[in-house]
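Q: Could you fold this chain for me?
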Amino acid sequence: MENQTFGQRAKQTTMKFLKRLFLIIIVLGIGTLAFFYWGVYERGIWAGKVLSVSEKGIVFKTHEGKISMESFGALKGTSPIAETRDFSVEKSEADVLKELETAALKGERVNLHFVKRYMRFPWRGDTKYFVTRVDVQKE
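A: Sure. Below is the predicted structure, expressed as structure tokens.
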């Protein structure tokens, strides 16, 4: 076995370091992407009436909707102020989508349980808000 020169050993050490650095960067990148994709920033409930549910998109078909929430002003006797929120429904939530469509057609008041994700991805939906459950309010 012949002796390696200083230059050869330095080159091997540098290559080993660069391979490890590249692997660390890849693992951190995948971890960050997974965090933004599956991480939940907020959970909550909206109460109101579902105004619309539709399928949108040219390349990526997503399910989108809109809910109207009436809130009352601070003064008694004032008329309600209608606030609307947009939301998305993931493709895997077929039951939720069917319940939303039924509630929209009947004009029923509902409670929408939602999660807010950190980022929006075009194949997932137009918003960061995703409805996970629908509770129809009994009158």
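A (continued): The first helix runs from residue 6 to 38.
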